[in-house]
């Protein structure tokens, strides 16, 4: 056994290590090189390596993943007892200086030519004491370092190590053949070497690439005792197979592979994959923070003493819903995949890439929260682009602007008044920002994100806001191939599930897409230069490259016939494929992603739409839509997803060309919606039922309960507004949970949002003109007032989030717009 030991004064820890074969690809993707070594995690100050036969090298696995790892030589000197001790004082300080890593977990893998028989994983936080990391053991004394190693019967073999430099250990390769089995003990033609990634959420669905040797087209895969559904397996070649991880119990599980029923080919990899004990939903959000995410644990006992952090920053707010569910408001961050940690007592759960900050907006932030209003009100005010506080913003409680309170440098205003014992209207305005009002706030916390006003005058007062659609160089890239079942069977024809072209102007083509946040999005055919055709080259199928925002992504491909000679171009999809759970990091490549085109688009979904009555202004037609809701990953838009009959009609609609919800689409749903709109452009007045979910095409989807169209009563159409009074009524229809005013001024540059927890109503808001234009008032001139009436499933106004102020967060809504002037 090899150990590292020392005194308490030196803060040394004992560690053990096991020899293994490390298999890594060179930058040129040549033959993997097998290396022997041992893996240990060192302590704080120093450690010795008794029995080492040569100098030791250190391999770091940083919080950004293995791409941030570095190999550092560890100069050694003889010690009493024959051990080796590094020169210098504090190892952690030296390592931190080398890698620029301070005050966060440091993983160190020591590779040496050793003869140990076991290893122990310890987690060390450099600036604090040791933490207990929640990773279940596999046998006595075994704990998994999933970011660094995986174990196998003959030792540990890795193929997913970064393209770093040599570790200072002589390669143990025995052949220059391209076979992945080269150098295996005893020349075994079958092997399971490792998984990439080595961990994922316990609810499954993540894409996992298995490396090994001897895989056939009939390969079977097990995660623990659970066999992967054959439809979720893509045999790529004898050394690689792609699978979708099934759900499992938190902790490490044994991976197993076997070719068909031939048990002689069965190979296992103990602890080859680790199910994370928690996951976040949504798993990504804007760098400005403020996103409210749900942390879902398995077998956890979270309580009021639990502390949750994103990238080592505590959640801005944390609520324990139940022992396995937390609501966390994400702090401001920087782009990229970040670690989630949840600590309860002496136990800490770590998920290294559990949440991704990206330059986008999802709406799960801001709004109302806290306990019922009882004499104390807290208002937090932030910039909606940057997430920074807005010092100097004005907070008006009620309608009297003379009582306005100015927020402090941290963007916080606290009002303590015994009379605050019933719902109050809260309005926030700031220089060069659009104001917002929440009418009849029933709780004690209001979190506001104000949109900056993008005018030259406002830009002159400070730095311009950052772009919200993405930053140059922040995207990741995916490289992979489209493959058909026929690609794996040389006796079959290629593209066998796509019919042959009937016209000279037709061709077989496929296109890649990412799931989106809008289920009502219209399908748009990409440029013909993005087409993947039977002539597109590839190793197993047809290669593609796509650039995508960082995060845990889902992509899908549609394959069919297209004809670019018509206007507009025609594309008929006959088959599709989906890959879920692809980890994409900023400015990094994710390679070897294989999309199997095995989902036929041969089902028909019927709708029974009960359209609202046609009014004098409209609506006059229905726009019906069908998309696929793929779990929490987003929506897939289909080419046959929209129809537009005129009102009145018999209500029957049929959409031919949706996939069965099987194979990679298990757990998905059909998302049906219908919009009663005015004119071909789909303008207001309109009423939308935005979300009806179903999982079968055997019965029609019935859509009704349209929200009545609003009528603005104060101010009257084309009249002057007094800046304070608003009144609206709604026509016959489903009840309204929330009314939202979008009052646009200055040609839309400034927009005042007013949220009202009711349908038909008359309310009063403060006249912001009394604050002055320099403090966020609307300028005089024409106004366009849009009025939404929303129905929201399970709505609680005291838990309102910004997403519910927009159509994306409404189950059904109506909208009309009116003109006035100020």
From TrEMBL:
Region of interest (Disordered), residue spans: 159-198
Domain IPT/TIG: 196-264, 281-357
Protein name: IPT/TIG domain-containing protein
